[in-house]
Amino acid sequence: MNNSELVQTLASILLASAPLMIAVCGEIITERSGIVNLSLDGTMLMAAMTAFVVGLKADNIWVGLLAAMAVGALFAFIVAFGSIRLRQSMFAIGFVLTLLGDDLSAFLGQNYTRIPGPVVKHFAIPVLKDIPILGPIFFDQDAVVYFAFLLVGLTWLLLFRTQPGLRLRSAGERPEAAFARGVDVNRVRYLYAVLGGALVGIAGAAYSLDIKIGWSDGHTRGLGWIALAIVIFGGWSPVRGAVGAILFGATKALATFLQRTFPEVSVVAFNSLPWLLMIGVLLLVSSEVSERLIAIAPRAAQRPLRRMLRVSPPRALGATFVEERTS
Amino acid sequence: MWVFFAKHPRLGIIFTALLPFLATLAALAIGAVMLILLGADPVEAYSALVEGAFGSQNALADTLVKATPLLLVALGICIAFRGGVINIGGEGQLVVGAVSATLVGLSFPDAPGWLLIPLALASGFLAGAVWGGIPGALKAYFNVNEILSTIMMNQIAVQGMNFLLRGLMIDPVQLEAASRIPQTARLAEAFDLPRLVPTRLHLGTGLAIIAAVLVFIFLWRTTVGYRIRAVGLNPKASRYAGIHVPRHIVLALLLSGAFAGLAGAVQVYGVHHRMFTDGSATGFTGSAGFNGIVVALFGQLHPLGAIPASFLFGALLVGANKLQRAMQVPSAFIIALNGLVVVFVVASDIWRRRWARQRVSETPEEVQSPKEAKVGV
To answer: I need a surface site. Which of A123, A206, B62, B313 has the fewest CB within 10 A?
Structure first.
């Protein structure tokens, strides 16, 4: 593999992981507020279908994108409403929505499969794209990539450097304490569940309008689950989540590359690689395994290592918050 | 409305029991609107559906055959959910069960049927148990979220199935032919599950119903079953009561996978008599691994409740096929109709429980059902 080929591969990895980064950011925002939106896979399918069909009908990418955001927000709202107002298991609702999104997108999009439609234009950033090596990788890309990186930064800022972000995290960590401090916990949860859902909608639209142009049955199937796993791998932090998304994209690229290089080895091994790796990663971050690994390391390195490896979910994640009645 | 039922509790109980059926009717009503939009006569369409599901001896048998894997998967789901773990890996477990049962049948083509069939079903059961047990162990001992790990295991199972069916297990005839359809040879006819000729109804349906009773006895009449339910309701209290919590979490997911694996084996020996793939899991399973979850929820997570629930779902699947053929509506309509039924049934369950809560609203502490038990993501 020569130099320009390597650069091209890296650029394509970034492009392929950009929608995942967007979806991961959306889900992180949602989960940090305490709501688990398990419907990601169905939401992305529905959003991808909607973006393509609406974009085609209106002959305008932006209209399609808006429609996809609305769909994503609606799915997230159903999850939030079901858990907050109806006090049902958000996992059950999310799972049913996953199935529904899969079925409904197949039904509504059946007349639009495999036809050309609107496409996001390639957009190189002038000047910056001429930087050697880095330029072609980062700045000679589609708008989706720039948006994804921007979003990661913005999400981080929102979560950790603003007051609304503090309220958002408090709703997910200690809803009772937040409530006592005057935060309307459930309103916060509605708000950020819907915002996160809209971002997931953008991620779905990014597939049908840019990465994997067009619509076919089960267009993005499986990617929503990957995004959910990356959220955990990322320890509910947008920066780590972005790294996880890129790593996943890289594994897939590696799998294709290895397959071309070693055609005699079974396709299965390489196709299963990303999934096996996900399990391995989940194992690594969510258990005593990491603690044992850390114990081996030299003492000075233990604290930063622990910060890097250990993650813990928001304390009240997945738990319904009920306001105390003042009676 | 709730006030009315609060005054007439007996009517309320009847209403509650009928709720899933009312929800199905509501979904069908929306389906009727869709049919009109598609330019078909809903009355005619739905009579085709009922006719297709119950109209004749053959139709009824087909419904039961369709219900069988749903029931078996749902039984596993009941065990998992009662144990406080969520198993979304039914598809993968079904696939590995089917593959391993097929392997047994292909390896001993000359064995007598009475010996091989039980062996094959057992191997499917065991393969499913392994496939469910792995996420179980990861959950119990390493705190790996089981929703995600079972999903991953699905994908790995599908990859493995495609590999075996395109390579080692492929039908020698297909190997010669240019098409190379990824499927195995037909299993020896001696291995077919006994059928109620002339219909397609096979012994697997009876096995599934017996299994439902056994799962009920297991969960509510044995110590181990009690412990699984206790762990599902409150793992902390269970631990203080001396129950080995991780072990029972593994057991719940392991058994859950085992029943899905058995469903796969039954599908091979009772229906298809071979294994095939279209590249995804759905080609072989018909999404039974997912639909089983819905059936279990429909049956209120009770093994005996899953029996009528699976029957209703089987009827819907079979009848909808007939409807599609008779009315020439797009097949995606059937998919959407099924999705609608699922959503409405789950939604009705929500209303039922809400009402149940209102009845006991004097007691402030809510009893958490295992489904709602907090899941550490």
So the answer is: A123
User: pLDDT value at position A283?
Assistant: 79
**Closest residue of B to A311, CA-based?**
B377
pLDDT > 70? residue B373: no
- What whole-number distance in Å separates Cα of residue B246 and Cα of residue B244? 6
CB B140 within 8 A of CB B250: yes
Percent of chain B with pLDDT over 90: 43
Task: Report d(CA A92, CA A97) in Å as an integer.
Answer: 9
Provide the whole-model pTM: 0.80
Rg (CA), chain B: 22
* Cis amide linkage into residue B182, ω under 30° from 0: no
| A95:B143 CB<8 A | no
Asked if B377's CB is within 8 angstroms of A283's CB, the reply is no
- Testing the interface with B: which of A53, A251, A268, A276 to mutate, by most B Cβ within 10 A? A268
Name the pLDDT band for B364 (thresholds 50, 70, 90).
very low
A contacts of B156 (beta carbons < 8 Å): 272, 275-276
Nearest C-alpha of chain B: how many angstroms from A301? 23
DSSP state letter for B193? P
Judged on CB neighbours under 10 Å (0-12, 13-18, 19+), A217 is middle
Neighbours of B377 (CB within 10 A): 19
> Which of the four pLDDT bands, split at 50, 70 and 90, describes residue B376?
very low
Q: What is the ipTM of this complex?
A: 0.70
pLDDT band at B359 (very low <50, low <70, confident <90, very high): low
C-alpha distances in Å from residue B4, one per residue of A201, B20, B349, B351, B359: 42, 20, 19, 15, 12
Which of B227, B368, B210, B238 is CA-nearest to residue B304?
A: B210
Q: Are B260 and B93 in contact (CB under 8 A)?
A: yes
* Contact between B63 and B311 (Cβ < 8 Å): yes
What pLDDT does A2 receive?
Answer: 62
Cα B343 from Cα A100, distance rounded (Å): 7
Closest CA to A73 of A172, A162, A160, A203: A203
Q: Which residues of chain A have pLDDT under 70?
A: 1-2, 264-268, 286-288, 308-310, 324-327
pLDDT bucket at B363, cuts 50 / 70 / 90: very low
Q: Name the residue with tokens 């809903």.
A: B42
- Interface size between A and B, measured as CB pairs under 8 A: 116
Q: Nearest residue of B to residue A85 by CA position?
A: B354
**pLDDT, tens digit, 9 for 90 and up, residues B240-276:** 999 999 999 999 999 999 999 999 999 999 999 999 9
Q: Where exactly are the structural domains of chain B?
A: 65-306
Which chain A residues are Cβ-neighbours of B143 within 8 angstroms?
A: 286-287
| Residue B169 Cα distances to A59, B161, B190, B275, angstroms | 49, 10, 20, 9
More confident position, B113 or A259: B113
Smallest CA–CA distance from A313 into chain B, residue: B377
For residue B341, which residues of chain A lie inside 8 Å, CB to CB? Answer: none
Whole-number Å distance between alpha carbons of A51 and A61: 8
Q: Chain A residues with CB inside 8 Å of B88's CB?
A: 95
Q: To which H or E segment does residue B335 belong?
A: helix B331-359
Structure token pair of residue B344: 């409405």
pLDDT tens per residue across span B37-77: 888 888 888 888 888 888 888 899 999 999 999 999 999 99
